[in-house]
Specification:
The protein has about 260 residues and is α/β, with parallel strands linked by helices. Helices cover about 35% and strands about 25% of the residues. Strands 6-7-8-3-9-10 form a 6-stranded mixed beta sheet, with helices on both faces. Strands 2-1-4-5 form a 4-stranded antiparallel beta sheet, with helices on one face. Bound molecules: adenosine-5'-triphosphate and magnesium ion (MG).
Length: about 260
Amino acid sequence: MLEARNVSKYFGAVTALRDVDLQLWPGEVLGVVGDNGAGKSTLMKVLSGLYPPSKGSLHFDGNEVQFHSPRDARDLGIEMVYQDLALAGNMNIAENIYLGREPKRKVLGGLISLFDHKKGLQMAKDHLDNLKIQVKSVEQKVEELSGGQRQAVAIARSIAFQARVVIMDEPTAALAIKEVGKVLDMIVGLKDRGISVVIISHRMDDIFYVCDRVMALYHGANFSESHLKDTSRSEVIGWIMGTKENVRELAHDRVK
Ligand SMILES: Nc1ncnc2c1ncn2[C@@H]1O[C@H](COP(=O)(O)OP(=O)(O)OP(=O)(O)O)[C@@H](O)[C@H]1O
Ligand SMILES: [Mg+2]
């Protein structure tokens, strides 16, 4: 469905990605792991059109593609939920879901008038109901929502327009434990709708709950990958630390 071949990304003298390959199959949930600075977010930003690769190529549905902006990726159905969410706190839920994507809209004024209309609110409400996301009202401002509700709205936004691939950068990192499960179940729900998902996470619980396959980056390069059924948490934690040995203990496990 989506492939990166030999992708490198340089920021001046910094090599963030070196000859990285990634394949995402239809209907698959792929986990991407790696230490801080391993290049995970950079790779996702290349896949979603925010950064052009310095070298290498991207392929969608078997055809080479070039993205000049996230808009180009989105036109193919590739959506990204950013690490910092990128929702507009002072706008309501419905406005955030459709923000910047009302096809006939040319200026912001047009968007506002759309949501003066009952229909826009009803569409947003139906979309959230469909995804079993509970909010008091779609007219509630996003800044009033909990972290988990915000993440749910961000995911709802990503699939409001025929997404085929959703890329999520640490969707559970900032959430309280009880909200994590809801977000993970939403990800499973995307897979059930045939949407392919790439999820970056530092949490093994996330990876082992939602993913079909996991790949590890280390210092900007491919390190290892496996189907989930053929690996273990301790092996994946080892990859993050740059070893192919199973890691039995983590530092915090040793704290008495
Ligand atoms: N816009 C940028 N300009 C310069 N360097 C950058 C930029 N974005 C990322 N980098 C560098 O590229 C490397 C990879 O960063 P990236 O954000 O992709 O890591 P990450 O794997 O997502 O880490 P984390 O787990 O901490 O989010 C780092 O060395 C980082 O400093
Ligand atoms: Mg990151």
